[in-house]
């Protein structure tokens, strides 16, 4: 195999990963009306029962500002409720609404959950080899310092209703028509 062949095979593999993430993100929006970050936050809120925004931000590795924006969008859709802590009025407690709980219990599929399961099936040395290779690729693309959470999703983290609508009914060329 030539250097050109290897380079092309690596680029094709990277593009496949990107397309798989894009496709999953579109499917999530179409099936549940949620972006990946919205699904991630709502799932964590349901798991926790009640949680503060700062604790939620820590658990999902997103900034407090990003979590606040996503929470506002979820609240506007009546998928969660915010209330003041009875003991400490400075704290805001987040709790999923009944509608939010139902949506999560209908198994909102998160791509990283399936990935984590399959990664866990690999031997430790295989996991470490993948990590090392991906970190090296990020470095080669000058992306090692980009802020990123452990979430497999595409598009903006704080997608507006208009952006979600664009995913549900795209006006551009469908991703299947894109060239690799």
TrEMBL record:
PROSITE patterns: HTH_MARR_2. Pfam families: MarR. Transmembrane segments: none annotated. Residues 7-139 form the HTH marR-type domain. Residues 158-180 are annotated as: Disordered. GO terms for molecular function: DNA-binding transcription factor activity. InterPro entries: HTH_MarR-typ (IPR000835), MarR/SlyA-like (IPR039422), WH-like_DNA-bd_sf (IPR036388), WH_DNA-bd_sf (IPR036390). GO terms for biological process: response to stress. This is Transcriptional regulator. It comes from Candidatus Thiodiazotropha endoloripes.
């Amino acid at each position: 195999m030539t250097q050109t062949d290897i380079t092309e095979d690596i680029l094709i593999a990277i593009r496949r990963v990107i397309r798989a993430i894009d496709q999953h993100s579109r499917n999530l929006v179409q099936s549940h009306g949620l972006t990946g970050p919205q699904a991630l936050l709502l799932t964590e809120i349901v798991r926790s029962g009640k949680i503060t925004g700062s604790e939620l931000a820590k658990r999902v590795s997103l900034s407090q500002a990003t979590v606040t924006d996503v929470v506002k969008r979820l609240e506007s859709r009546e998928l969660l409720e915010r209330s003041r802590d009875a003991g400490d009025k400075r704290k805001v407690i987040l709790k999923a609404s009944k509608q939010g709980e139902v949506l999560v219990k209908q198994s909102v599929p998160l791509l990283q959950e399936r990935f984590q399961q399959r990664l866990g099936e690999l031997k430790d040395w295989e996991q470490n080899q993948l990590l090392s290779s991906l970190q090296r690729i990020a470095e080669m693309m000058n992306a090692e310092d980009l802020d990123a959470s452990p979430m497999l999703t595409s598009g903006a983290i704080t997608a507006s209703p208009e952006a979600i609508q664009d995913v549900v009914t795209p006006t551009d060329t469908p991703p299947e028509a894109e060239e690799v």
